[in-house]
Amino acid sequence: MSKRSVQGFIRYLLVVLAALALSACATKHPPLEDVSLEGSPDYIIGPGDNVNIFVWRQPELSMSVPVRPDGKITTPLIEDVPAANKTPTQLARDMEEVLSVYVRDPVVTVIVTGFSGPYDQQIRVVGQAANPQAIPFNENMTVLDVMIAVGGLTEFAAGNRASIVRHANGETRQFNVRLNDLLNQGDIEANAPVLPGDILIIPESWF
Q: Where is the secretion signal located (predicted)?
């Protein structure tokens, strides 16, 4: 066999192996767009959030405060109340219980104005994104929203081999997402909802 034939055979073999590998990767995980969602999750307060505390008929007790890195807040008459990992409604009921020692029948409303959420509820993007980072989850967020937030893909990204790792119902599952088709081909069917705590992994292209 001539040198040219050997080189041609090697190139052919590499193409076949690459095709097989890509095919295996594409079918390794179910596509995310086939996964149905069951309702919208309630927002969970996290460190770095800002919360407005409104106590009915008690303006001196109403104020806006940040959630500290330890997950707690401090307001007049209430010190070090745990706020992280609670919904706004849960925090309001907890504050009513504490304030009832000082105020008769307190009515508290909690409004979140700055959003970060708990770390395990943020969307984390790793790998070949232009700006890998953790971003806050927003209701009705999709893969496209996540990619806009991280600045898209790098030139070395294997977008159609990307996957999302999701923890739900006590188990961890992994789903394929077709980022190249979505971002480069405009295939809107490749867009899909994301959930709090999703991890988007974008591998590097082999070639």
A: 1-28
